[in-house]
């Protein structure tokens, strides 16, 4: 409900927002590159100041499905396009966690879908490795390892969640996994 | 029989209304009745107490640990089990289920009158439902949880029935339309040319409980069991997917002629979950030492062997980690034995069957990680085997909502070498230098042999850990 209200509010002020966005985005982008985590700190402080009861991790996760151009691989080959597509699919499913987690049966189905999406993404990564030669293959393999590590961490978090019921940890872990998904895309984009 | 008893009783009661006269029949009859009542009471007091726990209301929640590490018992009446029931039976349809039960009771497949003879105990855990007779504790049947398709509660006047739809035991799946119930429901147009229609069949386990509360309690307990089991299965499915994607080789393990000649750091550190594996050091040593005779340029040789060792070592490292968490020490030793037998010439078919038996249903996903051990010539059989046991396509208990989780044929064609020294290779160009292939194959061979030995050693070391206080 709160999200709906905020969306409506944003739509009404969209013109002003767009102008502000155009000005501030490059500033934040540059600042973030030099001080990673700065943007998050600012946003969290603003939320605290305004005493807005918004779960930051939940919001971040819901936005995970949005396409981010800087992470999209622009190579035309089928395998790279598949990499884009499967990354998008995984992030989309992860973004539905906040809606599905309260429904026990439905959430199990979501987990199964996440499992399939992870598998498909890794399959595509493996296919790209096999088919294409990369100069900095080591960096790509390292990125794949990181992704696997965070996937395993996500699985462990789920096991803990089913015991203690703390959804926030699931959101945090899912956000980390979406970040790793983006890092895989970035790695293939810059190295390939 | 029962109506005669009633007539005699009534007759006795009539006579006994005359003051001062006690009917001899009544005396004998009532004495018999009292005796039977007394015996029933004695039996009830002789019966052991049930292994039960208090459940939180109103949803009868139980601590999951009890279902996982213990069990809970409830008293029921066992009416019987119907077999070869059409699988399309809707367990939510009161009419359908009662029709089957009524027919079964008429044909004496199920108990008609409920007496103490049907008294039974249902023992429930996260693994199975076990049914035993209340007196004597003889086992009636045992149903694994994953064989239960549905649980229904039907109230039929004073009867409170709990009906479990379960899988038919092996040997009873798709049956021809000789099933009487099937004949009633099938039309002529649905008959095949042979005159028979093959349908999936199931069983109905019919229980009765004392009242609605007891029925709801049993249903809710089963619901909690399903939740535990299917949550665990779902997480296992996730782990399998990650494991499979992570351990799929990213290159063909035979030397490819178009491989880059760039150097690879052969001393790459592993990301190991545990550092206690005895073989890890031997794996790193293998990866670092170049083979004795390799005619290719040192740079290419170092790159390819380093990459082979790194990739293969990672695959095997991951697999060992998983084995250690999923198998007992004895099972690890058995696995090592089977692997050695396969490498010494046993058929792939035998290897697969024996492994399937070793892992069982709950751990059959471990077969996925064996891809690295399977040479090219056997990979197709192996992939087909995975499909038949429902691992490859994610069948078994669960699949995802899109029926995904399939391996493509191309991704299964990664090559390995086996103990016979046959070099693997897919459609991609194979190395033209046989010496390179042989040394690569020998390298792989040696690693697999080392792994087999280390797996056995791991099993022995786990035994010792168990014994040492």
Automatic annotation (TrEMBL), chain A:
Top-level taxon of origin: Eukaryota
Annotated membrane topology: Peripheral membrane protein
Pfam family, one: PDC10_C
Record's keyword annotation contains Membrane: yes
Sorted UniProt keywords: Angiogenesis, Apoptosis, Cell membrane, Cytoplasm, Golgi apparatus, Membrane
Protein name: Programmed cell death protein 10 dimerisation domain-containing protein
Gene name tied to this protein: pdcd10a
GO CC annotation, single: Golgi membrane
InterPro entries: PDC10_dimerisation_sf, PDCD10, PDCD10_N
Family as reported in the entry's similarity comment: Belongs to the PDCD10 family.
BP terms from Gene Ontology: angiogenesis; apoptotic process; regulation of Golgi organization
From TrEMBL, chain B:
Low complexity composition bias: residue spans: 289-303, 409-420
Bias-annotated ranges (Acidic residues): 434-443
Gene3D superfamilies in the cross-refs: 1.20.1160.20, Pleckstrin-homology domain (PH domain)/Phosphotyrosine-binding domain (PTB)
Pfam family, one: CCM2_C
Domain PID intervals: 76-232
Transmembrane segments: none
GO terms classed as biological process: heart development; vasculogenesis
Region: Disordered, residue numbers: 279-308, 409-447
Family from the record: Belongs to the CCM2 family.
Protein name from the UniProt record: PID domain-containing protein
Species for this entry: Sphaeramia orbicularis
High-level lineage: Eukaryota, Metazoa, Chordata, Craniata, Vertebrata
């Amino acid at each position: 409900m709160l999200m709906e209200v905020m969306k409506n509010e944003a739509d009404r002020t969209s013109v002003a927002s767009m102008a502000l966005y155009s000005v501030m985005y490059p500033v934040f982008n540059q600042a973030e590159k030099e001080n990673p985590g700065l943007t998050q700190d600012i946003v969290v402080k603003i939320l605290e100041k305004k005493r807005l009861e918004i779960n930051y991790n939940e919001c971040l996760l819901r936005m995970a499905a949005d396409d981010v151009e800087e992470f999209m691989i622009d190579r035309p080959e089928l395998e790279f396009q598949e990499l884009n597509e499967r990354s998008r699919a995984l992030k989309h499913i992860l973004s539905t966690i906040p809606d599905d987690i309260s429904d026990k049966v439905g959430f199990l189905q979501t987990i199964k879908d996440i499992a399939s999406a992870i598998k498909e993404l890794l399959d595509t990564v493996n296919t790209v490795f096999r088919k294409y030669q990369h100069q900095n293959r080591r960096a790509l393999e390292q990125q794949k390892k990181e992704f696997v590590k965070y996937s395993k961490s996500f699985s462990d978090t789920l096991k803990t969640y089913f015991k203690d019921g703390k959804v926030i940890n699931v959101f945090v872990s899912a956000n980390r996994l979406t970040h790793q998904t983006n890092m895989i895309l970035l790695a293939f984009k810059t190295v390939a | 029989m029962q109506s005669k008893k009633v007539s005699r009783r009534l007759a006795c009661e009539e006579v006994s209304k005359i003051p001062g006269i006690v009917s001899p029949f009544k005396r004998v009859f009532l004495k018999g009745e009292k005796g039977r009542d007394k015996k029933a009471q004695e039996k009830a007091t002789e019966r052991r107490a049930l292994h039960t726990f208090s459940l939180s209301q109103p949803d009868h929640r139980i601590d999951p640990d009890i279902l996982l590490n213990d069990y809970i018992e409830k008293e029921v009446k066992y009416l019987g089990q119907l077999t070869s029931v059409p699988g399309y039976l809707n367990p939510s349809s009161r009419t359908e289920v009662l029709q089957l039960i009524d027919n079964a009771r008429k044909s004496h497949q199920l108990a008609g009158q409920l007496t103490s003879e049907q008294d039974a105990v249902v023992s429930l855990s996260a693994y199975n439902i076990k049914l035993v007779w209340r007196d004597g504790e003889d086992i009636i049947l045992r149903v694994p949880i994953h064989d239960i398709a549905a649980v229904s509660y039907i109230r039929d006047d004073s009867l409170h029935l709990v009906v479990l739809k379960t899988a038919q035991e092996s040997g009873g799946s798709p049956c021809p339309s000789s099933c009487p119930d099937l004949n009633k429901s099938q039309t002529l147009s649905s008959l095949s040319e042979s005159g028979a229609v093959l349908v999936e069949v199931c069983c109905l386990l019919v229980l009765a409980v004392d009242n609605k509360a007891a029925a709801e309690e049993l249903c809710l307990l089963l619901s909690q069991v399903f939740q535990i089991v299917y949550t665990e299965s779902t997480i296992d499915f996730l782990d399998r997917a990650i494991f499979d994607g992570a351990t799929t080789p990213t290159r063909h393990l035979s030397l490819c002629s178009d491989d880059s000649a760039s150097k690879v750091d052969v001393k790459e550190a592993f990301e190991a979950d545990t550092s206690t594996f005895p073989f890890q050091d031997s794996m790193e040593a293998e990866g670092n030492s170049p083979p004795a005779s390799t005619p290719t340029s040192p740079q290419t040789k170092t790159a390819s062997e380093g990459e082979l060792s790194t990739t293969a070592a990672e695959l095997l490292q991951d697999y060992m980690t998983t084995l250690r968490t999923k198998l007992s020490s004895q099972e690890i030793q058995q696995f090592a034995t089977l692997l050695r037998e396969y490498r010494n010439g046993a058929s792939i078919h035998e290897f697969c069957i024996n492994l399937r038996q070793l892992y069982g249903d709950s751990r059959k996903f471990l077969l996925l990680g064996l891809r690295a051990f399977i040479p090219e010539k056997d990979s197709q059989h192996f992939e087909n085997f995975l499909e038949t046991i429902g691992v490859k396509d994610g069948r078994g208990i669960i699949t995802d909502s899109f029926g995904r989780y399939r391996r493509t044929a191309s991704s299964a064609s990664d090559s390995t070498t086996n103990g016979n020294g046959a070099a693997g290779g897919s459609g991609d160009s194979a190395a033209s230098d046989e010496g390179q292939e042989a040394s690569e194959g020998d390298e792989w061979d040696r690693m697999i042999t080392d792994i087999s030995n280390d797996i056995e050693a791991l099993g022995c070391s786990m035994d010792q850990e168990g014994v040492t206080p």
